[in-house]
């Protein structure tokens, strides 16, 4: 194989993406190959049908939310850089990494990861997880075997626990606070993307 | 400092037990009762079987001698344990095993002093056949499954390779020492040294458990040490038997060594399969026990013990078999049998293993008082030193390799604890007695005893301060909240989805495949139909009925200050958690190493809702969780509001009443929570009024139950 940088030339904006997301050249290449594999019609971008072709994803309870997270608001297609930028959230957090204050927060920081997860709930992007949004997610996750009342109770309970300013919705800060004991880096990192 | 007054009482009772144990051999024939009814027996030989007059009292000790003595020993052990927990600050400093050994030493000394002969020793048969299985079964049944299997590679690495390293290292070095001191140790051959190395290198699960349980290290470390101590039995037993058979052979060839190597594999795998077989059979049997629920727990014990005996019969590793059996049958049995049977199983397991362990340590102490000691400074001291050195180097080297493959590296502090926590115990002791007799056998026995005592006392007592010194990461204890649960689930799904997008096949491919297989075939086959679906109303109703039948004391529970309105019962938390986990749709999930979603739900029902009842840990540590909340007696109106139309739940029952007994283990309310899928919320109004009063009441109630608490055991 040639040197990684020469194969990287095939990847659109390869160098820039590497810098921005922190992926290594090898990873980026791998992701590009995966992108091309998903892009069955060779259009250069992915549509939601391409995502839905992944069989396991269609069985995932929140599969459509995950797919939706790849698409920027208003966009119908995902090009490679957006693809990579979303996946950059799932790199394991590097410890002991110091960055200059001016640099933007890396995509795989704990905060950014949590924001990504938050946006899964908060589809209307109003900055809060309302009761209805939470109920929707719960319904998707819990399927048919739970009664409506149980769902309501669980949602009630969750909001009650997390909601500190009593506005009956979960803001991002409250969301982050309720997850402070969880090892987000562990839960939201794909190891092989290190 | 707790009141010390029970201690003298217990000591006196123990001494009485000792004396009773020392008397039998010297007890005169009980025919000295005063003659009654005018018959004169002074010239009659008591051994002649003549008709005698009726006596008011007579004593026939020999009739009951054997069971009487056994009971007395167990009584002694239990009283010692009781006294230990009552004795103020002692538990903080000295682990229970040490105290028990000291009691054993005392009793042994007393017996020796009275009888002037060696006290009864722990026979290897009694140990391996009766005393060891309950402990290992208990360990296997409460094994945290998810953690264990995630770390299985590392555990096997330490267990197999580490033990091999230790055995060979200690054996060869000891041989070197013997060569250096030919005058006193010259007649110990290489094979003898290797044999000795094989029995002394093994870390003992009993000793390790007893010390680590009191220490609350983080789960990963605990499972590493514990798992290693369980699994190295296979290697130890094989090597021991191997070297023993080599000793009997006229000569040893390379082929024999190769055969020996194969035997290690065979022993381990054989034990595994025997355990699997019996576990599955037990699961299947439990499916049909719903018509005779009272004997359901018996099957658990019978099958486990049978698996142990069978594998011992076939010269496989009994420990591996019984652990496998327990792990295999657990999920199916728990689903199949009633809650009371589950409780019975757990309590009996804990009780038997506790008694066993106590007896083992006491006998260790008693057996130390022997006539047959032989001392040799160089041998003993070098053994001690070598054990420590080889274990330390072994752990360091192995960890250096295994850290490259693990996500959570084993830190240096963890390594120190693993190395230092390698306690030897009764297994070594029994094995050394089984050696064929040869001139230096007594030396081996003495050395083994010294090593055991050293590791248990010195290492056991100092490990806690050292741990605190090194600030090992402690287990996090608080239970997750509902929000955490939900969000964690979401994140699991998210990660799974992203992995699918990226096309990542994680190392849990096999685990997921197994889970699918499990769900599709095994669970359907092994779990009775009426247990497979949830009918929440029925279950809640049954639960309520059950509680009424148990005559649960209705004590007002504590209200958590954290959440002022609508606190949740532990059962409710459990049920919510179980709803979240059990009702998740099945799909192939390739998850991060530590958090596979498929095993998470089992772990929720095992790890979190059924925290193992640590034998030494007081049952009430859980009580001091501030996240656990209880709901007070609910108004009927409130209840019916939250479950409209469920009028079958009769008015006088409150689903969330908490008895003091249950309150001790709120997160292990297995029976209560097992079928309780209905979260219900109490009304806020009454609680706030009565909460302070009820809080004190529940505190008083729980304090009553806290007789086993070690005062200085603080929640961490």
Plain-language structure description:
- The complex is a heterodimer of chains A (194) and B (716).
- Helices cover 54% and strands 3% of the residues of chain A.
- Chain A is mainly alpha-helical.
- Chain A has a two-stranded antiparallel sheet.
- In chain A, helix 9 (131-142) packs across helix 10.
- Chain A starts with a helix and ends in a 7-residue tail after the last helix.
- The relative contact order of chain A is 0.11.
- Chain B is an all-alpha fold.
- Among the domains of chain B are: 124-470, Na+/H+ antiporter like fold (Up-down Bundle), CATH 1.20.1530.20; 486-529, no CATH class.
- In chain B, helix 5 packs antiparallel against helix 15 and helix 13 crosses helix 15.
- Classes of the chains: A mainly alpha (194), B mainly alpha (716).
- At the A-B interface, helix 3, helix 5, helix 6, helix 8 and helix 9 of A face helix 20 and helix 24 of B.
- Chain B: This is Sodium/hydrogen exchanger.
- Chain B: Its main location: membrane.
- Chain B: Residues 563-623 form the Sodium/hydrogen exchanger regulatory region domain.
In brief:
The complex is a heterodimer of chains A (194) and B (716). With 194 residues, chain A is mainly α.
CATH architecture of the domain at 124-470 in chain B: Up-down Bundle
Q: Beta-strand percentage of chain B?
A: under 5%
What is the N-to-C order of secondary-structure elements of chain A (H for helix, E for strand)?
HHHHHHHHEHHEHH
- Which structural class do the helices and strands of chain A define? mainly alpha
**Proportion of residues in helical segments of chain B:** 55-70%
Q: Rg of chain B to the nearest angstrom?
A: 28 Å
Q: Low-confidence parts of chain B lasting 5 or more residues at pLDDT below 50?
A: 24-47, 533-539, 552-567, 583-716
Quaternary form: heterodimer
Rounded mean pLDDT of chain A is: 79
Total helical segments of chain A: 12
Summary keywords:
heterodimer, A: 194 residues, mainly alpha, two-stranded antiparallel sheet, 12 helices, 2 strands, disordered N terminus, B: 716 residues, Na+/H+ antiporter like fold, 29 helices, globular, disordered C terminus
């Amino acid at each position: 194989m040639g040197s990684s940088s020469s194969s990287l030339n095939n990847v659109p904006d390869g160098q820039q993406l590497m810098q921005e997301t922190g992926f290594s050249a090898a990873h980026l290449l791998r992701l590009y190959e995966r992108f091309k594999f998903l892009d069955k019609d060779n259009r250069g971008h992915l549509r939601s049908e391409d995502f839905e072709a992944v069989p396991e994803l269609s069985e995932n309870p929140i599969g459509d939310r995950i797919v939706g997270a790849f698409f920027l608001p208003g966009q119908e297609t995902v090009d490679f850089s957006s693809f990579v930028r979303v996946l950059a959230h799932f790199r394991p957090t590097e410890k002991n990494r110091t960055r200059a204050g001016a640099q933007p927060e890396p995509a795989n920081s704990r905060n950014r990861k949590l924001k990504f997860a938050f946006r899964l709930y908060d589809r209307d992007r109003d900055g809060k997880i309302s009761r209805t949004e939470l109920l929707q997610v719960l319904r998707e996750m819990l399927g048919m075997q739970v009664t409506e009342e149980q769902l309501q109770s669980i949602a009630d309970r969750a909001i009650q626990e997390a909601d500190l300013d009593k506005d009956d919705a979960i803001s991002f800060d409250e969301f982050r606070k309720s997850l402070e004991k969880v090892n987000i880096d562990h839960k939201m990192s794909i190891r092989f993307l290190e | 400092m707790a009141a010390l007054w029970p201690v003298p009482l217990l000591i006196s009772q123990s001494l009485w037990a000792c004396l009773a144990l020392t008397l039998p051999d010297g007890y005169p024939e009980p025919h000295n009762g005063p003659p009654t009814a005018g018959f004169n027996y002074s010239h009659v030989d008591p051994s002649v079987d003549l008709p005698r007059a009726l006596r008011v009292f007579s004593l026939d000790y020999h009739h009951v001698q054997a069971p009487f003595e056994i009971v007395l020993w167990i009584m002694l052990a239990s009283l010692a344990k009781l006294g230990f927990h009552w004795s103020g600050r002692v538990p903080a400093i000295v682990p229970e095993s040490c105290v028990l050994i000291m009691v054993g030493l005392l009793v042994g000394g007393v017996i020796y002093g009275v009888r002037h002969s060696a006290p009864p020793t722990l026979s290897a048969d009694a140990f391996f056949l009766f005393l060891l299985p309950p402990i290992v079964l208990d360990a296997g049944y409460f094994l945290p499954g998810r953690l264990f299997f995630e770390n299985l590679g590392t555990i096997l690495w330490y267990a197999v390779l580490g033990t091999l390293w230790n055995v060979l290292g200690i054996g060869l070095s000891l041989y070197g020492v013997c060569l250096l001191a030919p005058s006193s140790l010259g007649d110990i051959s290489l094979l003898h040294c290797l044999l000795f190395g094989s029995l002394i290198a093994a870390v003992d699960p009993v000793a390790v458990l007893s010390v680590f349980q009191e220490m609350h290290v983080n789960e990963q470390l605990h499972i590493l040490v514990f798992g290693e101590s369980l699994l190295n039995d296979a290697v130890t037993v094989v090597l021991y038997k191997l070297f023993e058979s080599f000793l009997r052979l006229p000569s040893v060839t390379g082929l024999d060594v190769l055969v020996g190597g194969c035997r290690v594999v065979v022993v381990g795998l054989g034990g595994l399969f025997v355990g699997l077989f019996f576990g599955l059979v037990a699961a299947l049997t439990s499916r049909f026990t719903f018509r005779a629920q009272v004997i359901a727990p018996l099957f658990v014990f019978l099958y486990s013990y049978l698996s142990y005996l069978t594998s011992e019969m076939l010269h496989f590793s009994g420990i591996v078999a019984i652990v496998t059996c327990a792990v295999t049958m657990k999920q199916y049995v728990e689903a199949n049998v009633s809650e009371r049977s589950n409780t019975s199983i757990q309590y009996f397991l804990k009780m038997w293993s506790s008694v066993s362990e106590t007896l083992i340590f006491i006998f260790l102490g008693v057996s130390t008082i022997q006539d047959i000691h032989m001392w040799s400074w160089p041998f003993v001291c070098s053994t001690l030193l070598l054990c420590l050195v080889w274990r330390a180097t072994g752990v360091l080297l192995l960890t250096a390799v295994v850290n490259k493959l693990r996500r959570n590296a084993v830190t240096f502090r963890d390594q120190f604890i693993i190395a230092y926590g390698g306690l030897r115990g009764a297994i070594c002791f029994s094995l050394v007695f089984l050696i064929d007799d040869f001139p230096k056998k007594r030396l081996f026995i003495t050395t083994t005893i010294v090593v055991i005592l050293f590791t248990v006392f010195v290492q056991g007592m100092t490990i806690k301060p050292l741990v605190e010194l090194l600030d090992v990461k402690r287990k996090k204890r608080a239970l997750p909240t509902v929000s955490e649960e939900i969000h964690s689930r979401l994140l699991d799904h998210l990660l799974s989805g992203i992995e699918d997008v990226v096309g990542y096949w994680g190392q849990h491919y096999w685990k997921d495949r197994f889970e699918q297989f499990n769900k599709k075939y095994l669970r359907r086959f092994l779990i009775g139909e009426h247990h497979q679906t949830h009918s929440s109303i029925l279950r809640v109703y049954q639960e309520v009925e059950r509680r009424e039948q148990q005559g649960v004391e209705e004590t007002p529970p504590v209200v958590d200050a954290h959440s002022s309105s609508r606190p949740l019962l532990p059962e409710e938390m459990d049920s919510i958690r179980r709803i979240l986990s059990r009702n998740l749709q099945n799909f192939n999930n390739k998850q991060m190493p530590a958090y596979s979603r498929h095993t998470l739900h089992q772990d929720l029902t095992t790890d979190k809702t059924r925290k193992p009842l640590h034998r030494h840990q007081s049952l009430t540590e859980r009580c001091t969780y501030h996240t656990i909340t209880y709901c007070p007696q609910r108004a009927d109106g409130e209840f019916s509001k939250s479950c409209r139309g469920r009028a079958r739940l009769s008015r006088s029952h409150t689903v969330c009443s908490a008895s003091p007994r249950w309150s001790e283990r709120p997160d292990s309310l297995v029976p209560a929570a097992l079928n309780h899928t209905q979260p219900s919320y109490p009304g806020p109004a009454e609680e706030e009024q009565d909460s302070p009063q009820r809080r004190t009441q529940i505190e008083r109630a729980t304090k009553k139950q806290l007789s086993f608490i070690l005062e200085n055991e603080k929640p961490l």
